[in-house]
Specification:
The structure holds 2 protein chains of 2 kinds. By secondary structure, chain A is α+β, with helices and mostly antiparallel strands. Chain A has 20 helices and 33 strands. Chain A has 5 domains: 73 residues, Phenylalanyl-tRNA Synthetase, Chain B, domain 1, CATH 3.30.56.10; 193 residues, Phenylalanyl-tRNA Synthetase, Chain B, domain 3 (3-Layer(bba) Sandwich); 69 residues, 2-Layer Sandwich (Phenylalanyl-tRNA Synthetase, Chain B, domain 1); 204 residues, Bira Bifunctional Protein, Domain 2 (BirA Bifunctional Protein, domain 2), CATH 3.30.930.10; 87 residues, Ferrodoxin-fold anticodon-binding domain (Alpha-Beta Plaits). Chain B is 38% helix and 18% strand. Chain B is rod-shaped and about 130 Å long. Chain B starts with 18 loop residues before the first helix and ends with a helix. Classes of the chains: A alpha+beta, B alpha+beta. The interface between A and B is large, with 86 and 81 residues. Bound molecules: zinc ion.
């Protein structure tokens, strides 16, 4: 919204030539008082202020209102608004009936006869152009000029096009229609507040006039409307028709109940000045109801309690009076303050405190620090969040954040929980709340791969959204994902287990690497067991994915994403991903570290080279060996795996390494040999064949 | 140590113990000593050299003792003894000087032999980078935790009641228009206050916390918020806020100013200044917008880039950056939790909220907010 500093200087004596009140200084001072000047355009007399007026201050969305603020800022007199009208003849030829007293509290009108509709005088056209308003004709411009001058929206009807010389303010009847000034034929709803003549709707009250009763070059007789419409009635009507006009903007926020008369007179004055004609009858002023503007008891000690400082009687009274409040000393409280009709936003003592503070200047208040005797409560999850986050960062995962919305299609593919749809989504791809973090991460991986970054490792921590028994739930998850080339590159050279050739071995190593990451995260929590099974969701590769169970509860799943899904998303790389369900994992406390004494006796290692059938997976071997309950067996793990070559199909060769150690003594060769023999026997029982 | 074409020196057995013969033998030995000593380059060489000459069991001097002194006839023993002692001194001296030599010349010569190319690119073990917005949010939260604020969180999917009504946005009020709300579908059958939407600010957590905790209260609330803003360089339908609330029997506008001024100095450095100007939020009164002196240009509005002075873009040359909205908690808001001890006549409070994404944009000079949400590793890794 633009305002002209030159125009507002008409109403208060703040010369542009005075360095204390020049355009730049004025802009700064208004901004400091909350009447924000966002920018200055143009030079000298053509300077325009780009204003940013908050929604609670419709009274400051015009020149006179801002001049009133200047009057308070600079402590100078605000000139009164007047209208010098010629004597009228006869009796007003129209009557006004307010049927909807809630929707319209007051309707003021004047009639001018014998007017000539033509272009506006040059100075009016220029003024309007200065605030980005297009000139239409002298009648329409007179109304618009008044809006920008003092903020009150008015409307001019061609009186001869109003049937029955009657204005009725009412709600629209079922089936009624109205063609508005913008040429649109509108079906009216029974909630629409309208202006009607004796027969039909002629305007959307406070929003837009009707096309069929508008002023044209043929117009001779005019009825000027200056009314006070109820904010919410105007808002509903405007919203229903998708309209937002300068008039509705102001009525919705609360216009000046006391201004209808002077606004009407000033419009009439300007039309008479430029178009001639004469007033027929006097002002028709119809009051449907009084606005309840109760005086406010204002206690100076309350102002001090909130602001921290007492600004003193003189300053308080000066500010309030300059803003148009009537201030009377009161016996019970310090003051009884009457609110002016243009300040519907001020209803309470706190509203007055704000007025005083903002005109005194926020920057003048001293900075203090409050004392505090309350407790600090740590959320139990913040330490857990921090632990997982720092682990992921140190494991090389970059932290990513994706939007909370996904497509219906993705929601269906990546979860089974009922989705939460948006009423007004930004797009089809963002139409439901995410039920999984996986699609978001896949999109980001695809973005990277498509931009030439083949090696990517990302994680995101955040909520997913699901509907449970009609209520929304927002469980937190962590999703991690990496491209195959990243996983291959990050494998430690000495740590490779499966040395066979081919995709399966590579996938096995990549899987082990992600498994290690997941184990690090999950293992940061107290647990009696971590187990794996293969019952993962459909979007994982069925042979290369696992679920993680901690103390019997599923806390994560991970593995290779089904290549078909990736092909569909145009992701030309194998991806491994994992999801951790924090709600479940966080049932466990972070692992408490308890010191273990260091061993004082050397460890002994023994290797066993075996060939097994593919069905003898490592967990079976592990189970068989641990069933031997060898107390000194500290570790039993594969050191190398091989398929192909001389190894028959369906079998694999594995080098298993046992590590024995005692905390009490140095181990003897014979006992190690005895344990080794037990292990060999157990492995043979599993169908393994020891190699030479 | 020994030239390949030449056999290593060995102590000869003597049969002739005449002076000229002894002279010759001593000369040969000293020549070998000299020759071998020059080849001592490092400590390893030195040890070999010393052992060869001085070792008790099989050193050259031991051989000399056996083969020359002990083998000498009685009449020559005295002469041979003197010569052997002289040779001993020579050997000790040579070893000493070889020690010096190995210490001085050692590193350089080792550097020649074992040199690697230290200009090869570093092998950087990958570590993950913190997301700039999360990092910023954590920093802000950290500042307030140090001031005794507890961390609170709340749901992203909120009811109309918590997002609007209890924050003094009456139903059908124009202030709601400024929030560009994203609504959850299929809510028509519910009463308005129960209808679900995506919270447009973190402020609902103020009410949620006051419902469950009595005053005094100090909380800081980080979280995601959503608005119906189509994505472009400066808008995102999702962004991050950090909200704060302090309620007690004696909280004043001066406390609001002092607390936030202190927090900004902790975040952006002790030289930043703050300035407050009036604003409007339905849930605070008086309401304010806080500006900090530009932490990019130091408040001058100008930046030196290379040798040139350029206008500072982040602060639009004003020297000030709008950083957050704040104010004293509106008594109407307390009215919604009055039964839990929040009588607006007895207590007061302040609240503030800032956008972490915006602060991160400014702090790191990022010119497109979309970069935060694309997961482009070329972008993310810059923050590692
Ligand atoms: Zn700057």
């Amino acid at each position: 919204m633009k305002l002209s500093p030159q125009w507002l200087r008409e109403f208060v004596d703040i010369p542009a030539a005075d360095p204390q009140t020049d355009d730049r200084r004025l802009a700064e001072d208004l901004t400091s008082a909350g009447i924000t000047v966002e920018g200055l355009n143009g030079e000298g007399a053509n300077t325009a202020f780009e204003m940013e007026i908050t929604t609670n201050r419709p009274d400051a969305m015009n020149h006179y209102g801002v001049a009133r603020e200047c009057s308070a800022i600079y402590d100078r007199e605000l000139k009164p608004l007047e209208a010098k009208l010629p004597a009228s003849t006869g009796k007003a030829p129209a009557s006004i009936e307010i049927q909807d007293k809630q929707g319209c509290a007051r309707y003021t009108a004047r009639v001018i006869r014998g007017v000539k509709i033509k272009a506006s005088p040059e100075h009016i056209v220029k003024r309007l152009a200065g605030v980005d308003q297009r000139s239409i004709n002298n009648a329409a411009d007179a109304s618009n000029y008044t809006l920008w001058e003092m903020g009150h929206p008015t409307h001019a009807f061609d009186l001869d096009l109003l049937e029955g010389n009657k204005i009725i303010v009412r709600r629209a009847a079922k089936g009624e229609t109205l063609k508005t000034l913008d040429g649109v034929d509108r079906k009216l709803s029974i909630n629409d507040l309208i202006i009607a003549d004796a027969k039909k709707p002629v305007a959307l009250a406070g929003v837009m006039g009707g096309f069929d009763s508008m002023i044209t070059s043929k117009t001779k007789n005019i009825l000027i409307e200056s009314a006070w419409f109820d904010p919410s009635a105007v808002r509903k009507t405007a919203k229903h028709h998708g309209l937002h006009t300068d008039a509705s903007h102001r009525f919705e926020r609360g216009s000046d109940y006391g201004a209808t008369s002077i606004a009407c007179a000033r419009v009439a004055m300007r039309i008479l000045e430029s178009g001639g004609g004469e007033l027929q009858g006097g002002e028709i002023d119809t009051l449907a109801r009084e606005l309840d503007l109760a005086p406010i008891l204002f206690d100076r000690s309350e102002a001090k309690r909130i602001l921290g400082e007492d600004l003193g009687d003189t300053e308080i009274v000066r500010i309030l009076r300059r803003l148009g409040f009537n201030v009377i000393p009161d016996t019970n409280s310090d003051y009884l303050v009457t609110v002016p009709t243009w300040r519907l936003d001020v209803e309470r003592e706190i509203d007055l405190i704000e007025e005083i503070a903002r005109l005194h200047g926020y920057d003048k208040f001293k900075k203090t620090l409050p004392s505090y005797a309350g407790a600090v409560i740590e959320t139990s999850e913040s330490a857990k969040d921090a632990k997982l986050r720092s682990a992921l960062l140190s494991l090389g995962y970059n932290e990513a954040v994706s939007l909370s919305f996904i497509s219906h299609q993705d929601a269906e593919q990546f979860s089974s929980s009922p989705v939460i749809e948006l009423e007004n989504p930004l797009s089809e791809e963002a139409s439901v709340m995410r039920t999984s973090l996986v699609p978001g991460l896949l999109n980001m991986l695809a973005y990277n791969v498509n931009h030439g970054n083949e090696s990517v490792r990302l994680f995101e921590a955040g909520s997913v959204f699901e509907l449970a028994e009609g209520k929304s739930r927002e469980p937190k998850q962590i999703c991690l994902a990496a491209t195959m080339s990243n996983l291959k590159a990050s494998l430690p050279k000495g740590g490779i287990l499966d040395v066979s050739k081919g995709d399966n071995a590579a996938a096995a190593e990549a899987f082990r690497s992600v498994k290690g990451d997941v184990e690090r995260l999950v293992g940061a929590f107290e647990h009696s067991s971590i187990q794996y099974d293969s019952q993962t969701a459909d979007y994982y590769h069925p042979g290369r994915s696992a679920r993680v169970l901690v103390n019997g509860e599923v806390v994560a799943q991970f593995g290779q994403i089904d290549p078909e899904i990736l092909a569909h998303r145009k992701l030309r790389q194998d991806i491994f991903a994992g999801e951790i369900y924090l709600e479940r994992l966080y049932k466990n406390e972070l692992r408490k570290v308890q010191y273990q004494p260091l061993p004082r006796y050397p460890a002994v290692e023994r290797d066993f080279s075996f060939i097994f059938g593919d069905d003898v997976i490592f967990s079976k071997i592990q189970l068989a060996v641990s069933a031997l309950k060898l107390g000194e067996l500290q570790n039993f793990a594969p050191a190398e795996i091989f398929r192909g070559g001389s190894i028959p199909a369906g079998k694999y060769s594995v080098l298993l390494r046992a590590r024995f150690q005692s905390y009490e003594r140095t181990l003897r060769d014979e006992e190690v040999a005895e344990w080794s023999a037990k292990i060999i026997k157990a492995l043979e029982t599993l169908g393994g064949a020891q190699r030479a | 140590m020994t030239p390949q074409n030449q056999p290593a020196y060995a102590v000869p057995k003597l049969t002739d113990f005449s002076a000229p013969a002894l002279d010759k033998a001593a000369k040969d030995l000293l020549a070998a000593l000299e020759n071998e000593s020059t080849k001592v380059k490092n400590e390893g060489d030195l040890k070999t050299f010393r052992d060869r000459w001085m070792a008790r069991k099989d050193g050259i001097l031991t051989h000399v003792n056996h083969l020359w002194l002990k083998a000498a006839p009685k009449d020559a023993k005295r002469d041979v003894g003197q010569r052997v002692n002289q040779l001993k001194a020579e050997v000790e001296q040579k070893i000493e000087s070889a020690l010096q030599q190995s210490q001085n010349a050692g590193p350089q010569s080792r550097g020649d032999a074992e040199r690697i190319d230290i200009s090869l690119p570093a092998l950087r073990r990958p570590i993950g980078a913190e997301h700039p917005v999360i990092k910023t949010m954590n920093e802000i939260v950290g500042v307030f935790r140090n001031l005794g604020y507890s961390v609170e969180e709340g749901p992203v999917i909120e009811s109309d009641y918590y997002n609007f009504e209890s924050l003094n946005f009456p139903p059908n009020h124009p202030a709601r228009d400024t929030q560009d709300t994203l609504f959850i579908a299929n809510q028509e059958s519910k009463p308005q206050r129960e209808r679900l939407l995506l919270r447009t600010h973190t402020s609902p957590v103020q009410i949620r916390t006051m419902e469950k905790m009595k005053p005094p209260l100090r909380i800081v609330i980080p979280g995601k918020v959503h608005r119906n803003d189509p994505p472009d360089a400066s808008h995102s339908p999702m962004f991050h806020q950090v909200e704060g609330l302090a309620v007690d029997t004696n909280i004043t506008f001066g406390d609001l100013k002092g607390t936030l001024d202190h927090a900004m100095k902790m975040l952006f450095g002790s030289s930043v200044k703050t300035s407050f100007r009036p604003s409007f939020f339905p849930f605070t009164e008086p309401s304010a917008e806080m500006m900090v002196s530009c932490f990019i240009c130091g408040g001058s509005g100008k930046r030196v880039v290379g040798t040139k002075e350029e206008p500072c873009r982040p602060c639009k040359q004003s020297g000030w950056i709008e950083i957050l909205g704040c104010g004293m908690v509106d008594p109407n808001v307390f009215g919604f939790v009055k039964e839990n001890g929040y009588d607006p006549k007895k207590i007061s409070g302040f609240a503030f909220g800032m956008g972490a994404d915006r602060i991160a944009l400014l702090k790191y000079g990022v010119d497109d907010i979309q970069l935060f949400f694309q997961g482009d590793v070329r972008f993310l890794e810059q923050f590692g």
